[in-house]
Amino acid sequence: MQLCFVVCVSNSAGSDKVESAISAFIRSHLPEADLVENLSSELIYQLPDDAASVSKFEQLFVDLDSRLSELGISGYGISNTSLEEVWLLFAIMECS
User: Fold this and answer.
1) Could you tell me what percentage of the chain is helix, strand and coil, using 3-state DSSP and rounding each to the nearest 5?
2) What 3-state class would DSSP assign to 47?
3) If one looks up domain 5-95 in CATH, what number appears?
4) Where are the alpha helices (DSSP H) in 13-82?
5) Paired residues of 9 in beta bridges
């Protein structure tokens, strides 16, 4: 089981075009990034937590900060996988 960082991006437009642009931008820095949820105005990505990927986070966020308005992003945040998410993944794996 791989634990991942989660990036939550709030986009002001909430359109498919904005989602595509944001996804392409994130994947240009971290090709392994996975869009796991699209809640209209909020996009949630899983980012890999291996050392090679984590070392790219700083540049991703520096570049993201400089392109917020261009990408239509009103804000973003990053968090580590919660304990609840770990238990849910564990339960799913046990049921399989």
Assistant:
1) 45, 25, 25
2) strand
3) 3.30.70
4) 16-29, 51-54, 57-66, 68-71
5) 43, 76
